[in-house]
Amino acid sequence: MRLDHDIKAFTDRLAALSGTELAQLAHSLRTELEGADREVAWWRATIELDATLRRQRCTRQAALVAHGASQAVLGAARRSGLIDTDRAAVTTVARAASDAARALLVLPGLDGPSSMAASFVLPWRSLVDHAA
Fold first, then answer.
1. In sequence order, what DSSP letters do the residues of 65-102 get, joined into one string?
2. What residue numbers bound the domain in which 43 lies?
3. Would you say residue 118 has pLDDT above 60?
């Protein structure tokens, strides 16, 4: 199934991130959420994603893939030593990766609808494309 492949490729690529890549992702993600408008948009997307997951009855599976994604980031951060030097960056990337993994469940691959929840996947598209 394509969806399983997307999530596995995403998680595998997260686990292989270097400390430099993690720091760059954290900076990019923080920049993306700067400003009240962008934070409100993130909350709206979160609400939409949660509702969609409930409607499709896949909240438990979403929790599992979110956990897997965040654990992959933590593992990469431990291997690179970033977890000891910049916990805030690691936390930023792990949280965003878990949101993206949950969104992958409700999007048809990476070519999902132009919904607010689809915005969770957009920052990660190159990671999945690179892993495929």
1. HHHHHHHHHHHHHHHHTHHHH-HHHHHHHHHHHHHHHH
2. 2-131
3. yes
